[in-house]
Specification:
Order of helices and strands: EHEHEHHEHEEHEHEEHHEEHHHH
Strand content: 5-15%
Low-confidence stretches: 362-374
Helix content: 40-55%
Radius of gyration: 22 Å
Distance between the termini: 59 Å
Shape: globular
Number of helices: 13
Number of strands: 11
Strand order of the largest sheet: 3-2-1-4-11-10-5-6-9-7-8
Largest sheet: 11 strands, mixed
Length: 374
């Protein structure tokens, strides 16, 4: 049976909402759950929620990571619930990690404990939003604020694999988010990324605008994490506003209340499409393992659905497909296999960049390790 580690201490409503959601998943999804966190608190929460299934266990972790802590500060906590969960995956005791906690800490800890997949510089957060058809993938939705063109190319490749393998989209259409469809639009980053994506085997269509996302014009929208996160939070706010506006409209008069009763089933279907909690957590693609980032304000339903997303990603063996496609792309571009020293330097550089630190050049790195030249 699939075993998933859940960070019991992560999120604004932890631990109760997280534990409750994990119990729902254990009962509904037929998975084993390992709750990672401060043992006494987790046990007390479980006792308040009634008897737990035998498929739910606890692994103690003495430290927690606050939602506002920096990734570098989180890494210094050797026994945090996030780090212990990733260590369980590294040891092969679980197949996925789910957390509603600090997403920056998730990425940094995952990179340091598990490392990245071959050919991946930066993990990226992927979200699926409701659109006509099977949904539209947005990547990156917040993991990487500052990106380089090669990062966006990798995001496009990973997002295409997810859309194909998990959502069942044949030959996913990929676009780069920009301020216009014309080639001259965008900025230096999007123009360079677009040019490089055009040279890949992806079904790349070019630029897409924000208004095209919900139309189903593309299946994968590629952007940097700053843009993606702002876009995602705007969508969440708009969805909430629409729901509140409809409720207010239907409560104004007796006639409008009757109208609501007559159209209630249709409105519920529409609300389900607008409700981001139905789509669960966001995979952190590119790690040498599987991590799902749930919304910080997640309740039991969202945690349960995040665990469902983890189960689906494991079942479709997403990481193997990503590795194969990235390796094939590197071969087509004529890249030689990296030497071990260069591969190590690339990983160190990417980790430093993800923490907001400016790495030395590769030559400077060599000099500092050898004590300088001459």
């Amino acid at each position: 049976m699939l075993k998933i580690a859940v960070d019991a201490m992560g999120g604004d409503r932890a631990p109760r909402a997280v534990v409750e959601g994990a119990l729902l998943a254990a009962r509904d999804l037929h998975v084993q759950i390992v709750l990672v966190g401060q043992k006494e608190i987790v046990e007390q929460t479980l006792s308040q929620l009634g008897p737990a299934p035998s498929s739910v266990g606890i692994v103690p972790a003495s430290e927690t990571v606050a939602m506002d802590e920096s990734p570098s500060a989180a890494l210094r906590k050797r026994n945090s619930s996030i780090k212990v969960a990733f260590e369980l995956m590294k040891q092969g005791q679980v197949q996925a990690v789910v957390s509603a906690g600090n997403s920056g800490a998730m990425m940094a800890t995952g990179m340091f404990v598990l490392g990245n997949l071959p050919q991946v510089d930066r993990p990226a957060i992927l979200v699926v939003i409701p659109t006509p058809g099977k949904g539209t993938v947005i990547i990156d939705a917040g993991a990487n604020v500052d990106c380089k063109p090669r990062h966006l190319v990798q995001f496009g490749l990973m997002g295409s694999i997810y859309a194909e393998q998990v959502l069942g989209v044949s030959s996913p259409r990929v676009g780069v988010l920009s301020n216009g469809e014309e080639e001259g639009k965008g900025n230096e980053l999007t123009r360079a990324a677009s040019e490089q994506l055009s040279d890949t085997s992806l079904n790349y269509l070019g630029y897409v605008e924000g208004r095209d996302i919900f139309s189903g014009a593309v299946d994968v929208v590629v952007c940097d994490g700053f843009t993606g996160n702002v876009m995602l939070k705007t969508m969440e706010g708009l969805a909430g506003f629409i729901v509140r506006a409809l409720k207010d409209a239907f409560q104004r008069t007796a006639l409008s209340r009757i109208g609501y009763l007559l159209s209630r089933s249709s409105l519920r279907r529409a609300y389900t499409q607008l409700d981001y909690t139905e789509y669960g957590g966001a995979p952190l693609l590119g790690l040498n393992g599987l991590a799902i980032v749930a919304h910080g304000g997640s309740g039991p339903k969202e945690i349960r659905n995040a665990i469902r997303v983890a189960k689906e990603a494991v079942a479709h063996d997403v990481n193997r497909h990503i590795t194969q496609l990235l390796g094939k792309t590197a071969e087509e571009e004529g890249h030689k296999p990296e030497k071990p020293a260069r591969r190590l330097w690339r990983r160190v550089r990417s980790k430093l960049e993800s923490l907001g630190e400016e790495p030395e050049s590769e030559e400077e790195g060599r000099e500092s390790k050898s004590g300088g030249k001459g």
